[in-house]
Amino acid sequence: MVTLKNARLSLLIVAVGTLLAVVLVVLRSGPAPSVDVDPDPAQTLASFTLTLTQDASYATPPSPRRLGTGVLDGSTPSGFARAEHTDPATGRRYAVVSSDRGWGLYLIDLSAPTRLAIEVPHANSDLDTEQVGLGLFRKLPGSVLLVTGTHRKVVDVAHEEDTVFNAVARLLAERSVPQVQVHGFDDESLPSADVVLSSGAAPVSPLARAVSLEGFDTCRAWESACGKLEGTKNVQGQDAAALGATFLHVELSRSVRSGRLDEVVSQLAKGLKP
């Protein structure tokens, strides 16, 4: 007759045997495979922007146009790293091309033909303009986001021709890709306006007129004077004018960038949609 004590001993033996079998299976199968997670471009951009300090090093590019062509055409030019990911916020594939030599960071949407260039020449100087750029990039498929690789007090890419940033912008203008360039200004510089829109040195375009920005006090340089915020000396705007390309210069007040960023991105995107 089986006693209670013997029954308990039998159950214990079975349990230990089962546990050993599970351990053996785990040991034989090895560690669980790692799962690759696509990085969030917002984090990539934030980390990159933190490096744009006034004491950061800058290497003069040997051939800006050749490097810019490689950035756009996927050949990964010397001095750059390139990777492709899926944006977790949009589900769209994009390429990130970046340099640690001060030559910029570029996000290229791969889900649609290129139809808009979004330029941020003063990231970490005009605070949060890079967030505006990324917001527009995510809302507008087929965009290329250009972000400066240097602090404006090291090299101001909006006013220097021999930079990779300018080379990429010019190549896009040559391909008739419209450009929107995002800047920021202190509230005191133009207290009457939240936003300044201009075409820089280029003629006013239908694209510029289509940006209405409801709910924002907007100064339109083709309708009235907007102080020193019209971007007429901007080299990307000058190139666009010479090439007959579309260029829109956007200045956002500090209050807008700090308190109404999502709203202004949505309004800009509405006007910039093809």
How is this structure best described in words?
The chain has 274 residues and is α/β, with parallel strands linked by helices. It has one domain: 3-Layer(aba) Sandwich (Aminopeptidase). It contains 9 helices and 9 strands. The chain has helices spanning 4-29, 41-50, 64-73, 129-139, 164-174, 206-210, 235-243, 254-259, 261-272, and strands at 81-86, 93-98, 105-109, 116-120, 143-147, 179-185, 195-198, 218-220, 247-253. The protein has a 9-stranded mixed β-sheet with strand order 1-2-3-5-4-6-9-7-8, with helices on both faces. Strand 2 and strand 3 form a beta hairpin. Helix 3 (64-73) crosses helix 5 (164-174). The longest helix has 26 residues, at 4-29. It starts with a helix and ends with a helix. The relative contact order is 0.13. The model is unreliable at 1-27 (pLDDT under 50).
Short key terms for the protein model shown above:
globular, alpha/beta, Aminopeptidase, nine-stranded mixed sheet, 9 strands, 9 helices, 274 residues
In short:
The protein is α/β, with parallel strands linked by helices. It is 36% helix and 18% strand. It is globular and about 45 Å long.
Helix content: 25-40%
Mean pLDDT: 89
Instruction: Sum up the overall morphology in one term.
Output: globular
Number of domains: 1
Q: How many E-type strands?
A: 9
What's the architecture, going by CATH?
Answer: 3-Layer(aba) Sandwich
CATH topology: Aminopeptidase
Q: What Rg, in angstroms, do the CA atoms define?
A: 26 Å
Which strand order do you get reading across the main beta sheet?
1-2-3-5-4-6-9-7-8
* Fraction in beta strands: 15-25%
Q: What structural class results from the helix and strand content?
A: alpha/beta
In N-to-C order, the SSE pattern is: HHHEEEEHEHEEHEHEHH
The main β sheet shows up as:
9 strands, mixed
Task: Using the coordinates above, name the CATH class.
Answer: Alpha Beta
**Uncertain stretches:** 1-27
